[in-house]
Description:
The structure is a single chain. The chain is mainly alpha-helical. It is built from seven helices and no strands. It has helices at 7-18, 20-23, 26-29, 35-43, 47-60, 73-79, 82-93. α4 runs antiparallel to α5 and α5 crosses α6 (73-79). The two termini are 25 Å apart.
Amino acid sequence: MAEAITETELRTLKLCQLFPCLARTTPIRQGLWDPNDLDAWAVKASAGEKHAARFVLTVWNQYEDWQCGKFNVFDAVVSWDDMHREAFLVWVRDPWFA
């Protein structure tokens, strides 16, 4: 029997779904949140995808030393298209941390 998803996990999953590149990943499409899976996926991802994953992982746990690297807002904003920047701004307008 699968464990119920917590409110924080659900909120993080919804944050992932705001980013088009993350919403396409199989675990996120299936409604599954596993920060280690996202981290492993991001190691092999493109620059924009990596920035999106780094951002979500930083919201999840800013103190973890993620394999995909640290989030840098300046690098991310330059790399993202308008849809990804807007996803980020949704969080900026009402920030929260796991």
